[in-house]
Design a protein that fits this description.
This protein has one domain: Rhodopsin 7-helix transmembrane proteins (Rhopdopsin 7-helix transmembrane proteins), CATH 1.20.1070.10. It has twelve helices and no strands. The protein is globular. 33% of the residues are buried. This is G-protein coupled receptors family 1 profile domain-containing protein.
Length: 279
């Protein structure tokens, strides 16, 4: 498992950093979609880096000891970055909605100021949302055993160690507004695409948001199962596997999904490779 996880971590770092570099180097990629995508790549690198090093240590040592403070810090870092990804995916869904449903007004509705405001809101929103959950978590009493049945300090394995009522904090964790925002945008997008008379027009409109749609369901599909199931011993093993999918497997897939379908990124990376890194 160590070579597998290490390879995925290296691919995550290289893939996302190359994507950021390609967008920064190519002026024709300076669009709202790729502006948001760069921030999404930063988030992917961040929360993978907060999990992968400890995961690699655990694979080698067969388990590690972590202090309560370090555990809470890791929970906050992972939770905040995952929440930021939820915000960014919702923002990117809204961007696709404007591009397809309001093409003539797109440049006005999604100008540079709006992009910055939406991005800043995504980064600030993560601290507020996760901070509220951690405040509720800090009010719980932990009686032991102090053994977390997971590969990082995730929410449900930690809540499972509490000997007090966890109903309120679990209900807060079930909040799915970010997923609803994304699905609401795509509901409007699909309705607009179906109204297009020509099959060529429908295909072009759908291909515009296909990459984002793949990433959206890869990320939310696994995370929804983890955070929508009860924190019982019967589901913890399944949750660990699904947690691996959205924390370790999805981040290296994101740049691949976007770059493989985009000729602009492919051309930019080829130029960057041929020039030896000099533009």
């Amino acid at each position: 498992l160590f070579p597998l996880f290490l390879s995925l971590y290296v691919v995550t770092l290289c893939g996302n950093l190359l994507l950021i570099l390609a967008v920064q180097k190519s002026p024709h990629l300076h669009t709202p979609m790729y502006f948001f995508l760069c921030h999404l790549s930063c988030v992917d690198v961040g929360y993978t880096s907060s999990i992968a090093p400890q995961l690699l240590r655990e694979v080698v040592a067969g388990g590690v000891t972590i202090s309560f403070t370090a555990c809470v810090v890791q929970l906050y870092a992972v939770g905040a970055l995952l929440t930021a990804e939820c915000f960014l995916l919702a923002v990117m869904s809204y961007d696709c909605y404007l591009a397809i449903c309001w093409p003539l007004r797109y440049t006005v509705l999604m100008d540079s100021r709006t992009c910055v405001e939406l991005t800043v809101g995504s980064w600030i929103g993560r601290f507020l949302f996760v901070g509220a959950v951690l405040i509720l978590l800090a009010m719980l009493t932990f009686c032991g055993p102090h053994i977390i049945d997971d590969f990082f300090c995730d929410f449900f394995p930690l809540v499972k160690l509490s000997c007090t009522d966890t109903t309120v904090v679990e209900r807060v964790a079930f909040v799915s507004s970010f997923l609803s925002l994304s699905l609401l945008s795509y509901d409007c997008i699909l309705s607009s695409i179906l109204k297009i008379s020509s099959s060529t027009g429908r295909y072009r409109a759908f291909s515009t948001c296909f990459s984002h749609l793949v990433v959206l369901f890869l990320f939310y599909g696994t995370m929804a199962v983890v955070y929508k199931t009860p924190a019982s011993g019967k589901t913890l093993n399944l949750n660990k596997i699904l947690s691996l999918l959205y924390t370790v497997l999805t981040p290296p897939l994101n740049p691949l999904v976007y770059s493989l379908r985009n000729k602009g990124i492919q051309i930019t990376l080829k130029k960057l490779y041929c020039s030896g890194g000099n533009w």
